[in-house]
Amino acid sequence: MNNIITTQNLTKYYGSLLAVDHISMNIEEGEIFGFLGPNGAGKTTTIRMLVGLTTPNEGTATIKGYDIQKDIVKVKSCVGVVPETSNLYNELTVWENLRFMSGMYHVPRNERDHRITSLLKTFGLADRARAKFGGLSKGLKRRATIAAALIHRPDILFLDEPTSGLDVMSARSLRQFLKDLRETGVTVFLTTHYIEEADLLCDRIAIIVKGQIIAMDTPNNLKANVHGTSIIEVVFTSPVKTLNLEELQAYGSIEVKDNTLRIQVTDVLKSLKAVTRFADDHGLKVVYMNTVKPSLEDAFVKLTGVESEVMLMEKERRGGGA
Amino acid sequence: MMSSRRLLREAKVAWAIGVKDIRIYYASPPSLMFGILFPFSMFLSFVIGRNMPFAHAIPILIAQTLFFASSSIGPITIPLERRMQTFDRFLSAPVSLWTVLLGKTFAGFIYGIGISVIPIVIGAVFFGSQVSDPLALVVGMILSAFAFAAMGIMFASLPGQGPGQIMMPFNFVRIPLLFISGVFIPIKDLPYWGQTASMFSPLTHTIELVRAGLGGENFFGPLINVSVLTIYFTVFVFVGIRFHIINQKRE
Fold first, then answer.
1. Which residue of chain B is at minimal alpha-carbon distance from A81?
2. Distance (Å, rounded) from C-alpha A174 to C-alpha A166?
3. Between chains, do B248 and A54 touch, taking CB under 8 Å as contact?
4. Domain extents for chain B?
5. What's the whole-model pTM score?
6. What is the per-residue pLDDT across A166-211, written as a single tens digit (0 to 9) for each?
7. Handedness of CA A288, A293, A299, A305 (dihedral sign)
8. What is the ipTM score, two decimals?
9. Residue in chain A lying closest to B19 (CA)
10. CB spacing of A104 vs B86 below 8 angstroms
11. Running DSSP on this structure, what letter comes out for residue B34?
């Protein structure tokens, strides 16, 4: 496989703040590559540098062999960009927006209508072609924005939080579409804060924290990173939050949510005995007990020290979405 | 050097951006307020109650509408598009920043020309004003509309997420220009320092050329008027693009 995106020590400062810290990576042609990290980690800034929306302070990057600083117009010709906010013109219809974008990307005049019709059909927007973009639902806006990014048939599609704010069905169909797109040879570079989404969708994932890539591998290899540990999940009949968990903490890190206790352990047998002893001592009844393999979320938490729920709540607070 | 094919492609994109701006922003409340209501109300507050034939005031109205209308489109569209993040669409498309700003200048140019035709028609129909030098009028209007549209684009590079944040400092420049440009006091009646200052105001040369076109007197001469407006257009375009590039680097 060829590397379609290559970065070498790519760096961006905002004043004295180091937003992206000397990141180097290679992205292969035809893969779905995910950028995963908490807010302010530098995900969006990296995309903005790669697509020419902002200039790096240090380092280099090439896309399809074109330097992002010297050949930016050529770079822009072969990439499609879907920002976190669906940013077509509210005052124009879906058709007019796509028509305008086809002009911006120099799509031959005689092909424009055909491409627009085909994209509208693919994204289930054929019956909304004459509707004003501003009047569409979040999900339809997202679809129209992705359709606009594909009007010039790019080799690489950049998506910043593609399913943020979408309902379950829309997010699911979008994920399926991205998988289908990969089958046509398009490389997909996406950022997401949904760990499960990254696991389901991406061929490779880079975890970025404070501007630095701290891990980059396939989802399976990242999960193997927490190898040697297992998770014991126990559901009790009553909440355990108020109880003294000190005796269990000796067996591994603990996560408590209502009636559920999750302990990341190395010795399963010893830990199971400790849990049953804990239940007896506190008069708790066990509803369910299971040992599970670490998920990508566990790998993420181990690598970053950031709980995924905290990351999601932070995202919601800052109001991300289409 | 840009090939002629690429030049044509860029020109087509600039045209498409201009037409899109015309469709979306011409009838928007800030455009109507800053581009039409503002110059007309300022003009009326100036002429009503003064012992001045209305026909004599028509060149002032034409120049003022050209000035305010052309220069308002950039400071309205660019901050709005920055806020809605649609400006990023241009920046991520395979076109140069020159093309984007040229398209926006074109939208301001058409707006200024379109609005300033209204006082010409009013003057001709109701007050009997006649065009005695069409060349001076047409050249004056075209050059002025381009220069003021480019001036607006230059100010639109100021950081701000709404038209109000750009219009406020912009009006600190636009309104004082009215006092030294022969709008309220004829240039020949100004003291020497006032005449020197008026020489450096682009609005002076718009009024001068429009006046010459409608048979009025000209203080500096058409050659100076055309030269100054051309220099201003060039300076506004180059400084504007420089500021927008600096902005992009900061983002």
1. B92
2. 10
3. yes
4. 4-250
5. 0.81
6. 788 888 888 898 999 999 999 999 998 888 888 889 999 999 988 9
7. positive
8. 0.85
9. A100
10. no
11. I
